[in-house]
Structure formats: structure tokens, C-alpha cells
Amino acid sequence: MHADAYAGFEELYRSGKITAVACMAHIRREFFDEAQSNGTATAIEALTRIAQLYAVEAEARGKPPDERAAIRQAKARPVFEELVRWLSSQLQVIPGKSDLAKAIRYALGRLPHLEVYLSNGKLEIDNNAAERGMRGLAIGRKNWMFAGSESGGENAAIAYALIETR
Questions:
Q1: Residue 66 and residue 13 share a domain
Q2: 108 is in which domain, residue-wise?
Q3: For residue range 108-121, what is the model confidence (pLDDT) as tens digits?
Q4: Residue 5 per-residue DSSP state
Q5: Residue 138, pLDDT above cutoff 90
Q6: CA atoms of 72 and 142, how far apart (whole Å)
Q7: CA 84 to CA 82: how far, in whole Å?
Q8: Among residues 99, 101, 92, 79, which one has the least CA distance to residue 24?
Q9: Alpha-helical segments (H) within 15-76
Q10: Which contiguous run of DSSP H or E holds residue 21?
Q11: Bigger pLDDT: 27 vs 135
Q12: For 124-133, what is the mean pLDDT?
């Protein structure tokens, strides 16, 4: 299951039936925010390295799972492994309580859960497609509070579920 580090998901993973797969978009967002707010060279470099992984994804997109996995193993794995090494080294030279250190610790905690995508061509590097699919529900939920009555709300819920799961 692609997800961020929400602690509520931990119970799902305990049985071993569901594997945690981290989302690079969530990892990237931490560095993007740091680069936007402070222009930190380390955050910008992290974004550049992450962009290299997305470039490999662009090349692999649309190919069968076995080809995607082979492309990732050949091209993305070395970049991925170097990203982990580089982030670990950066954590040693920056202030431990900084937002950048927080972003690096988040990344280092999540990257082991993302590594599985490198060898599984059925997985994606992020869960952006799923999040885009849910965006309409998230945007509309405040509007749906005003369905007129409880039965109106139930009917609306059924209709929205059918529309979103077409």
C-alpha cells in the first residue's frame, strides 16, 4: 500500500499481508518546502537527485512490469542507493533540529519502504494517481455536509461512491 508515514496505517502492516510502500512525492515535498522557504543548497540538491529517479520513471512508463523493473534496476537503483548514502552524510553536517534535518530523517525513514518499487514493475514511485483520484472527494466534502437530510446524505454518498469508482 502506497502511503505517507501516517501512524494509523501501522496496524495494517503488522499482519504481513500488506506491505508498506512509501511515496516519493511525500518525501520530495519535505525538500521542496525547505528549498522554497530557505533556498537551502542541500534541499535543492536532494530535489535534483529525486528528479533523476523521476526521469527513469518517465522512461519506464507504459512498459510491461518486467521491463519497468529491469530499467529501474539498471538506472534507478544506483541513483536511489546514492541518494540514501548522500542523505545520511548530509545529516551528519547540518544542525540536528533544523527543518532540513527533519526532512532528511523523514526521507531516511521512508526510503527503505520505497525501495521495493525498484524491483516490482507493478508499483509506482509515488501514489499521486490515487491522490488525484481522491481530490474531488476531498474538495467537495464540505459542500456535501449540506445534503438537506440524513437520507439525502445517504443517497448522495451512494451516488458519489458510484461516480468515483466507475
A1: yes
A2: 2-126
A3: 999 999 999 999 99
A4: S
A5: no
A6: 41
A7: 5
A8: 79
A9: 24-38, 41-60, 65-71
A10: strand 21-22
A11: 27
A12: 72
What are the b/e assignments for 103-131, b being 16+ CB within 10 Å? bbebbbebbebbeebbeebebbbbbeeee
Residues 41 and 121 in one domain: yes
Contact predicate 26/5, CB 8 Å: yes
Distance of CA 84 to the CA centre of its chain: 16
**Overall number of domains in the chain:** 2
What φ, ψ does residue 64 adopt, rounded to 5°?
Answer: -60, 155
The per-residue b/e assignment along 59-86, b for 16 or more CB within 10 angstroms, e otherwise, is: ebeeeeeeebbebbeebbeebbeebeee
> 155 and 121, same structural domain?
no
Query: Cα(first)–Cα(last) distance of the chain, in Å?
Result: 21
Q: Are residues 116 and 147 in the same domain?
A: no
- Cα 129 from Cα 156, distance rounded (Å): 24
